[in-house]
Structures are given as structure tokens and as C-alpha cells.
Amino acid sequence: MSICWNQYPGRAFLHNQWPRKSMRLSPYSPNPSTHHEMFLSSFSTFSPSLRLPVAVFKCIRSSFKTTLSFSSARACAAMASLSTVSTDKEADQELKYKEQAVSPQPQVAKRLEKFKTTIFTQMSNLAIKHGAINLGQGFPNFDGPDFVKDAAIQAIIAGNNQYARGYGVPVLNAAIAERFRKDSGIEVDPEKEVTITSGCTEAIAATILGLINPGDEVILFAPFYDSYEATLSMAGAKIKSITLCPPDFAVPLDVLNSVVTKETRAILINTPHNPTGKMLTKNELEFIANLSIENDVLVFTDEVYDKLAFAAEHISIASIPGMFERTVTMNSLGKTFSLTGWKIGWAIAPSHLTWGLRQAHAFLTFATSTPMQWAASVALRAPESYYEELRRDYNAKKAILVDGLKEVGFIVYPSSGTYFVVVDHTPFGFPDDISFCEHLIKEVGVVAIPTSVFYLNPEEGKNLVRFTFCKDEGTLKAAVERMKEKLKRK
Ligand code: GLN
């Protein structure tokens, strides 16, 4: 059990090392001299969007070499090309300048320097590259329901194609309010208390950027979804992280009690929890609620897996007496309707908090896709049987993966909700999650997510990896077979 503050020095390195093909370095002993090289390699391997600008830059540079001033290295290179080369040393120096000039340094603001490419993108790219079965990034490899796709097509044909109202198409605001009333018992005003965003990720960003000031203290539970830390960093928040430990990932209430003070501005929770599958218990939620009320703290709650609650009833913290007034509840369409690419999300909050998050939303995306919002309103009016069937299907998938992982020899931790399961890989003898995942991709042909990226201190996650079961049964069985055949206990 530990508490961490942000600015852990090893983390940026960890994010950088995946795309590197041949080099193996420990993420736990950063080596600054190779740091930049690895970062560049990650871009040249994985980012076609950067390759094009580099090519364009090279071309422009060759024609306007002396007039452009993209960086001081380039200016130096231009000067060097006019000077007379008299020694080997100078020739080497000139070569170095030229190399620097044709490979511009990737530029990023300090607040985002440590994050780089997300682990999900990196792992999905590696899955394609190595032909591995992707049980890493959480997206279904099957399609969403026809009645929702048909509704989107109809909305487009009907001409619902211009900007949506900034805070949402009215039918969707109403459908969300109705769904929330059924699920949590809370009556909300769809016009003043519901805001539609581009996925839950934007709801998180709008909430944090709209309600958190630089220097505000925000509490997170590690392991945490990667966008929380990045967005809090963009807002200039001071992050305090409380670690949830296996086997049950229970909230250490005494630690939480000592960490929440009058200085705390917000607590960010996620239930059911990605990556562990833990669902916060009623007792834990009430404890968080009491502390928040006592210390006048806001609660931001990410509930995107609420319809994938297997072992217990999902509880929205906003439904605890006294909590609605201080809570932003965030959710999305993607997981529940297997349409992660639609990016329809929302934030439900009392109007005094909605004010701040709408201010941020207005300048982040302004509005999100109009026809998809119409279709989302149809989706949310699905009969209860849709949700029951979803849970039944996922229970079957979960059993295939969990039983399979146990047979392979992992220590499998119980997952109560979400479509993820976290395991301890140490029976196979690898020193950390990164080296294990590397072996799993290259030698076994299966992709998992190393969890150390979800901690301020990566050491805390080095024994754990996450698998997803949002794939068809054939894919899950094939992945288990590969692991049974090729993974050997040490
Ligand atoms: N939520 C998805 C996961 O946890 C990933 C989404 C993303 O790639 N940003 O796997």
C-alpha cells in the first residue's frame, strides 16, 4: 500500500521503450542518452502521420535552407554549410549538424512530455506487426447491434448532418437522463445537467480542465486509466495516487482517510475499474462520500463499464445522499453497444458543475457527431433484455479467458466487472511486465497490456498484466491455445 506523487522519473522512459525493435533496456533504470533516440524510433516505426511532415520538411528545407528558422540546429546547419571544412573534427561536426537538421526534434509542451504514444496504440500496432492475437486494447472484434447502426444510417439520410447543439442533441440528452433515472434513481434535468461529449475521454478532459485549477490536489487510485494522469497534467493539477493492491484491489480506507484533506479539490474514481475489474463496494463508496462531504471535495466518476458488472450491482456514487451536488458522473456508448469508434460520451452533473465542464467542452470539441447522437438516443432506449444478453455473452467470454489463463499457469485475480482481467505473470520467470509482454508478443503471438504504465511508480505494476475478453470466442480460445503451447512455467 503506498501513496505516490507525480513526477516519477522512470515513467517517461517506460512509455518510450515499446516501439524499439532490437534494444532491450530496463524501464526501471532510465538511460537518458538513448531516451531521445528511442522516442524518434517510436515515431518512425509507428506514426505515419509524422513521417509525412518530416518528408515535407526535408523537401522545404532543401530549397529554403538559409531562410527558414525552425530550430537553432537548422540555423547552425545552414551556417556550417557556408564555412570551409578544414579538419576531420569540423567535418564530423558538420555531419552531425546536417543529421540534426534533417531529423527535426519532436516538439511537445512540457506538460505532455512524459506521456508519448499511449500504451493501447503501441500494443495494437505491435499486434499487427507480429500477427499476434490482440487481447490488449479494449475494443470488441465484433460489431455493434444492427438497430443502432440502422438508426445512424437513417439519421444521416434524414439530413441530421450539421453541427449539433454544443451540449447535445435534445433527444440524446433526454435519453441519457431517462437511462440514469432507471439505473441510479436520480432525476436529472436533461437540458441543464447532461452534456454530450466526444467519448468519455472528452468528458474526463472537459471535467478536469473546466473544474481544476493549476496546483489543485486531485486523488487517483492506481492502477489508473492513462488519460487521467495526462489530462490532470494538462490542467496543472497536483496528483496524489493511492495504490490498490492484489488480490482484491480494495481501497485502503485508512490511507485514503489520511490523504484527503481540506487541500483536496477532487477524487477521481472508476467503477467497474479498468484495468483490474474491481467494483467499488457500497462501503468503500460511502467512505469516499463521507470524506468528500466532510472536506468539501468533488468526485469525478468514470462509469463506462457500468453495464458490464458481473459480480455485484453497479452503484453510482451520485446516488449516495449528499453526493449528487458534488459529483460528475461520466459514461459512454462504446462499451455497452460495442461501438467504441463512435466516440459518444457524456457527463452528468448538477448545473453549477456542468457550467465549468461545458466551458471546457465548448472549446475542446464544441459539439460531437450529430447523426451518431441521434443513433445513440435510439441505443439507450434498448429494452432491458439487450443489457441482460450483453452480460450473458460477456460472462461466457470471460469464463473462456479466465479458465484458460488459470490452466496456462497465471495467478488470475478476480474481476467483478469490465471486460478486463489482471493476472500475475511471475510464474513464467520474467523480471517485469514489459519483458513478459515482449516475450508474449514475439514468441507466443498474443498481446496483453503491461500495467506498470498505470502507476506513478511503474515498479508497483511490474508483476501484473491485463488481458481483455471483448473478442469473439474463437479468438479467445486461439489465444489460450497459443499460451498453453508456448508459455512455460519457470
Ligand atoms: N479504453 C481502452 C482500453 O482500456 C483503450 C482506449 C484507447 O485506446 N485510448 O483498452
Going by CATH, the homologous superfamily of the largest domain would be Type I PLP-dependent aspartate aminotransferase-like (Major domain)
Overall pLDDT confidence? 85
Largest sheet: 8 strands, mixed
CATH fold assignment of the largest domain:
Aspartate Aminotransferase, domain 2
Report low-confidence residues grouped into runs of 5 or more: 5-86
**What is the count of helical runs?**
17
Approximate shape: globular
Task: Specify Rg, calculated over alpha carbons.
Answer: 24 Å
Number of strands: 14
Q: Which cofactor or ligand species appear?
A: glutamine
Considering the chains and any ligands shown, give keywords for the structure.
490 residues; alpha/beta; Aspartate Aminotransferase, domain 1; Aspartate Aminotransferase, domain 2; 3 domains; 14 strands; 45% helix; binds glutamine
